[in-house]
Write a structure and sequence with these properties.
Number of strands: 5
Shape: globular
InterPro entries: MPN, RadC_JAB, UPF0758, UPF0758_CS
Keywords: Hydrolase, Metal-binding, Metalloprotease, Protease, Zinc
Domain MPN: 31-153
Pfam families: RadC
Protein name: JAB domain-containing protein
Number of domains: 1
Length: 153
C-alpha cells in the first residue's frame, strides 16, 4: 500500500492557509455610516492616474460595527470593463471575517450610471452574501453613484 501511495502522488497535496493581518487597532479603523463615508474611504484608495484609463473593481470589507477591515483590489481591466469574480470577492470577505462588504468600481468613460451587467452582478453577489451571512451594503461608482441610495440594491 505504501508503494502505491508514493507512486500515485496522493501524498502530494497543497497546503491551504487562511490569514488576515491588520496593523491597525480596531478602534483606529475608519467607521462608515452612510454611502458618502464609504465613497470617501474608497476614494483615498484609488490611483488617480488609472481612474480615467482603466476600469478597476474594489471591495471594502467591514466588521459588525461598520469599521473598515480593509480594501481589497479585486481586478484591473481595460477601458470598457473588468472582471469581478464572486469567488474571489467572498474568499477575501471570509478571510477577513467580514460581516458586510461594499462593492466599488470606476467607469473610465465618466458615466456614473450602472450598466445592466453591473446591476446583474450586484444582484448575484447580494444573493451569494445572504447564503454566507455577509451583507452587501452597497455598490458605489468611484465618482459617487450609490446603488443603495438609488433603491437598486
Amino acid at each position: 500500500m505504501e508503494k502505491l501511495t508514493k507512486k500515485s502522488g496522493l501524498n502530494r497535496v497543497a497546503e491551504i492557509k487562511l490569514t488576515y493581518r491588520s496593523k491597525v487597532k480596531p478602534s483606529e479603523r475608519p467607521q462608515v455610516t452612510c454611502s458618502t463615508d464609504c465613497a470617501e474611504v474608497l476614494r483615498q484608495s484609488w490611483d488617480t492616474g488609472k481612474m480615467e484609463f482603466v476600469e478597476q473593481f474594489k471591495v471594502m470589507l467591514l466588521n459588525r460595527a461598520n469599521r473598515v477591515l480593509g480594501i481589497y483590489e479585486l481586478s484591473t481591466g481595460g477601458v470598457a470593463g473588468t472582471i469581478a469574480d464572486p469567488k474571489l470577492i467572498f474568499a477575501a470577505a471570509l478571510k477577513a471575517c467580514a460581516s458586510s462588504i461594499v462593492l466599488c468600481h470606476n467607469h473610465p468613460s465618466g458615466n456614473t450610471k450602472p450598466s445592466t451587467a453591473d446591476l446583474q452582478l450586484t444582484k448575484k453577489l447580494k444573493q451569494g452574501g445572504e447564503l454566507l451571512d455577509i451583507v452587501v451594503l452597497d455598490h458605489i461608482s468611484e465618482s459617487y453613484y450609490s446603488m443603495a441610495d438609488e433603491g437598486l440594491l
